[in-house]
């Protein structure tokens, strides 16, 4: 009996998975971006009552992506087992630095896993890891689907980086470290967009104001990020870079070996016995 040998291959997304991913990404982007386009007559804070419905809708769509990917993209028992192991590891890593200047070691593992296993597996892994982490730390709330969505995008992006089949060694490590550095800030920015609309309008220049228009609110949001999360995001980014450069070679090698042995998507063939 033989299977595919040689290089590990990322798990492909099927058409239903792509459709579900596009839908949840569009819904998530709309939910995050609406304050910048709010009409002057609207009240930003009035939409706080919509949070439970948004929570439910996004969570259902995220579960649909996971189910569609498992059912049609070659996620057999071995791949599901690896998904569970990596998600549990990431969830266990996150509380290690929670509340300490953005020291969140789970991010580098998501970057490396997305790189080896591809964007489809990466999105599912990022979402499931953040869900497991929320259950582990008791951080379940209206922000959780946005955390799942953001981490899914974060991990998927690593799988979309160029040179997955050719680039190895220091060049690959620097690519992943650079991506992790920038994506750590992007993750923080997305999560700021989730909470910023509900900031009370107390006359400050960082709270959302429908009267300010899109550009004015964009400036207010940038000031909000600088004032509240820059230090945290910088800590997350630096930790991701350091861990990627130091632990990356060993973990990439282990993930690629595990993927080859699991032989995801490999067609099994039987050779006739020789006489």
| Fraction of helical residues | 55-70%
Number of strands: 0
Average predicted local confidence, pLDDT: 76
Main sheet makeup: none
**Helix-strand category:** mainly alpha
Termini Cα gap: 16 Å
Outline type: globular
Summarize the SSE layout with pairings.
Blueprint: H1 15-33, H2 51-72, H3 77-93, H4 106-137, H5 144-159, H6 170-195, H7 213-228, H8 230-262
Task: Explain briefly what this protein structure is.
The chain is an all-alpha fold. The protein is built from eight helices and no strands.
Describe this structure in words.
It contains eight helices and no strands. It is globular. The two termini are 16 Å apart. The model is unreliable at 1-6, 44-48 and 265-272 (pLDDT under 50). The protein is mostly helical and 275 residues long.
